[in-house]
Specification:
- By secondary structure, the protein is an alpha+beta fold.
- Strands 3, 5, 7, 8, 9, 10, 11 and 12 form an eight-stranded antiparallel β-sheet that branches. Strands 13, 14, 15, 16, 17, 18, 19 and 20 form an eight-stranded antiparallel β-sheet that branches.
- It starts with a strand and ends with a helix.
């Protein structure tokens, strides 16, 4: 279980300093509220009051410190009766909308820094929280723009009351659109143990009660400031105004549930930018159409995405008939073995090998696993596996899929 504390909406998990950085900064940009000194080496931008704020008829004084507890056990589900609108299909539609709204040139590097093993920019189930606080659903991830790392976080909640009154330290400007939508913006900084993190924040109050907070901060994978926030206020505004993020927006017909979770357990820089993954997916879809195997998939074979643990890997999982077909590719320094178990060396030097002899005795939720591993001369490794009690996805087809993946990457 992970416990964290929120002060006026800012997560400031004080269990250990590492968690303060990993969680506190992410959500500080998410729902930023002035904190000042916290006793944990945490400092926020000083608040001026009295102050005039554009778009506000009046400005209230800063709020007194408040703390809210939020706990996640990794067992939250999308069938939360308190959030009947947040289905796996709705979460997928929201996630697709956020990724589609990212500016050109922004690459997704890694998954959530808030939720363990969370996919990049995928809306998670709502965690448990104090009755006085509604944490909503959050999607976040590490991104890169012009070679500089940063983060993007989007949170969606539903409130019954009106937008929060203008308050010093909460916003820099307020905009009210013709339909009554209210948009608050803020650029600010927070500091942990002397490392200053800059954030841009856009908070949108919709007429249906949805509250969308889109934020971007300049911390990297090591939770250190890079000095450049990847997304501007205007770009975050575009994300926050996506109609798919409103709780009341119906899910499009044919929208699939969220993809099956996957990871490659890879870290560090790699070749799997968003564009590289798109090319890989196109190659897999072309392959599947060409082979014409009579196996029903629940989504395109080309459903790979950046691995949650970093852009050195990409992975995807689909339901294939009665089984789960998983593909992983890792840009690493694997070396073909001189005496591999059951290896077959191809003319280009690539090598099919069995790194897990006896893997047929392994199971996934009780289903036997069959796996093939292909290592290219470059060191790139491809793993393809099927977990099923009975399926027409046989070993030669797994090998063919591995070859299709290997042929589309360096």
């Amino acid at each position: 279980m992970r416990m964290s504390l929120r002060r006026g909406g800012v997560r400031t998990d004080g269990v250990v300093v590492g968690v303060v950085v990993a969680l506190g900064v992410a959500a500080a940009g998410l729902t930023h509220q002035p904190m000042g000194q916290s006793g944990l080496g945490y400092l926020s931008e000083p608040v001026e009051y009295p102050v005039d704020i554009p778009g506000c008829e009046s400005v209230e004084p800063p709020e007194e410190e408040q703390f809210y507890g939020v706990a996640t056990s990794g067992q939250e589900r999308y069938d939360n009766p308190d959030y009947p609108w947040l289905t796996p299909e709705k979460a997928n539609a929201m996630s697709v909308a956020v990724r589609d709204a990212l500016p050109a040139g922004v690459d997704v590097l890694a998954g959530s820094v808030v939720w363990s093993f969370g996919d990049p920019l995928v809306f998670q189930p709502v965690p448990s929280a104090d009755a006085a606080y509604d944490p909503g659903t959050t999607a976040d991830g590490l991104v890169s723009r012009d070679g500089v790392e940063g983060s993007v976080t989007v949170n969606v909640t539903r409130l019954a009351d009106s937008p929060k009154p203008c308050q010093a330290g909460w916003l820099d400007a307020r905009e009210t659109l013709s339909d009554g939508t209210v948009i608050d913006t803020r650029d600010t900084w927070t500091e942990i143990d002397g490392d200053r993190i800059y954030s841009n924040v856009v908070r949108m109050y919709a007429r249906d009660g949805s509250v969308v907070v889109a934020s971007s901060s300049d911390y990297n994978a090591d939770y250190e400031s890079t000095g450049t926030v990847p997304l501007s206020i205007e770009e975050l505004r575009t994300i926050a105004l996506r109609p798919e993020l409103l709780w009341s927006t119906p899910v499009p017909d044919g929208m699939l549930p969220l993809p099956i979770s996957c990871d490659t357990n890879s870290e560090g820089a790699g070749q799997f930018s968003s564009r590289a993954v798109d090319r890989l997916n196109a190659s897999l879809d072309d392959f599947w159409r060409a082979v014409g195997v009579p196996v029903e998939l629940d989504r395109p074979l080309g459903s790979m995405r950046t691995s949650p643990s970093g852009s050195a890997g990409a992975c995807g999982a689909v339901m294939a008939g009665d089984g789960t077909l998983t593909i992983r590719v890792i840009d690493a320094d694997y070396e073909p073995s001189e005496n591999p178990w059951g290896a077959v060396t191809l003319p280009d030097g690539s090598q099919f090998r069995d790194d897990n002899p006896g893997a047929s005795s392994m199971t996934l939720d009780g289903d036997p696993i069959d796996e093939v591993t292909l290592v290219k001369p470059s060191g790139t490794r491809v793993d393809v596996e099927i977990a099923a009690r009975a399926t027409s996805v046989d070993r030669p087809l797994l090998q063919a899929i591995a070859l299709a993946v290997a042929g589309s990457v360096a």
